[in-house]
Amino acid sequence: MKVNVVSRKLVKPWKETPPQLRCYKISLMDEINPSMHVIRILYYSSSSDHHVCTLEDSLTQILPLFYPLAGRYDRENHQVDCNDEGAEYSTALVDCQLHQLIAQTKLRPEHLNHLLPLEIGASDEPTDPLLALQINRFQCGGLAIGACASHRIFDSASLGIFLAAWANAAMGKPVISPNFDSPSYFPPDNLRPHQFQESRTLDESIVSRRYIFDKYAISRLRGMLETTWKSNGIEVPPSRVVTVSAVLSQALLRADRAKHGKSRSSLIGQVINVRERTIPPLSKHSCGTWVVETFLEFTAEESQGMDKNFAGMALKMRDVIVQGVRDCARILSDKEFGRWLMVDMFLEGAKKAESPDYKAIFITDFSKFGEYEVDFGFGKPVWISMAAVPLEDHFILLNTKNNDGIEAWVYLHESDMPFFEQDEDLRMLTSISA
């Protein structure tokens, strides 16, 4: 697949940012984000010249609402200069049919990075755009929108909010009004970013794979948990995310044991979206970084037991998430606790994960952002994807088009992936695109 970029320019807001909004101090949570972009690629089976033209116009219309995205980051002062310099907007031609790309059984995630406007690590420099978009047109008339937004001011839920707002503007639907008030709750404290990687370019030592859990695999996994759930008085069926997260975590623990010849202590981080879970509730359209990372820790002996006990692993992962959701209620009323939950706990876990005595696993759920409903006038997406990202030992979970499965994007070191791919339980439950 060859992608030829034919145009690249800056799109500015249709009106100037008012003086009182020119300086946007990032939040405490934003400070510790790694220097990278959050990404998404949305694929549409058909497009028209008219609707493609509305993309740029509607972007101009909504940028005043998302005013930090048109500015530039001032790293020295931990703030965004909302100077209306603009978002980067590119158009490109792809030399294949969209269905050929989607139907590939041996899809290479790194090839999808060509559909993105920037290197994922290209952020935080004074000239780096905080938002970049690339409109990719396929030979068949299909289209893919590649989006990059700086993790310095956005988490993945924020990107979902922006995409929905942009689509609404393109369709003439009611405007989604975001808010950027996270710094008022948790002001910056001059913290350094936690760097999972240092390079602005793709780290080739991190290998990407996509595993698809269809509705039949999900149903089978839920059936395996039914007795445990009932015996623990849990009436709600196991979620797709918990079942898939447990399977993936077990497979990686087994792979780690096979590689090292013994089990190590393990640390499993699961991300919770804080929006609408605080008291009082944060708006679902709150932009910035509003997440909690919960951690589940096992000794080496416990790790070896858990990599064989699917029901036990799933139950413990569920319990940690349930407690994390309960804890979210206190974030705004008890700021000291809120800082510990959203910042200090993450930094402690991340530091522990750097120890050679631990196998760390990080799981992020993007399946609930509703991006299969994002319609710019081309109809709804036929696929939503990630690409290759510079995050080691990460699982990113996306929804499937029919809302009944999970696409798991797996990012491991090249020395770990062969052991992971050989896991028999994983091979029986999934189809793999590598």
Considering the chains and any ligands shown, give keywords for the structure.
434 residues, six-stranded mixed β-sheet, 32% helix
Separation, N- and C-terminal Cα atoms:
15 Å
Taking pLDDT < 50 over at least 5 consecutive residues as the criterion, the unreliable ranges are: none
Reading the helices and strands in chain order gives EEHEHEEEHHEEHHEHHEEHHHEEEEHHE
Gross geometry: globular
Q: Could you describe the largest sheet, including whether it forms a barrel?
A: 7 strands, mixed
Tell how many strands the DSSP assignment holds: 16
Structural class: alpha+beta
Cα-based radius of gyration, to the nearest Å? 21 Å
Helical proportion, percent range: 25-40%
Spatial strand sequence of the major β-sheet = 11-10-12-14-15-9-16
Overall mean pLDDT stands at 94
The number of helical segments is 13
Beta-strand share of residues: 15-25%
Characterization of this structure:
There is one protein chain. With 434 residues, the protein is an alpha+beta fold. Helices cover 32% and strands 24% of the residues. It is built from 13 helices and 16 strands. Strand 7 (131-137) and strand 8 (143-150) form a beta hairpin. Helix 2 crosses helix 5 (156-171) and helix 7 (215-231) packs across helix 10 (310-328). The longest helix has 21 residues, at 240-260.
SSE layout and pairing:
Blueprint: E1 3-11, E2 23-25, H1 28-31, E3 37-44, H2 49-62, E4 72-74, E5 79-81, E6 87-94, H3 98-102, H4 109-112, E7 131-137, E8 143-150, H5 156-171, H6 182-185, E9 206-213, H7 215-231, H8 240-260, E10 265-273, E11 291-298, H9 300-306, H10 310-328, H11 335-353, E12 358-365, E13 383-385, E14 394-399, E15 406-413, H12 417-421, H13 424-429, E16 431-433
Parallel strand pairs: 6-7, 10-12, 12-14
Antiparallel strand pairs: 1-6, 2-5, 3-8, 3-13, 4-5, 7-8, 9-15, 9-16, 10-11, 14-15
Helix pairs in contact: 2-5, 7-10, 8-10
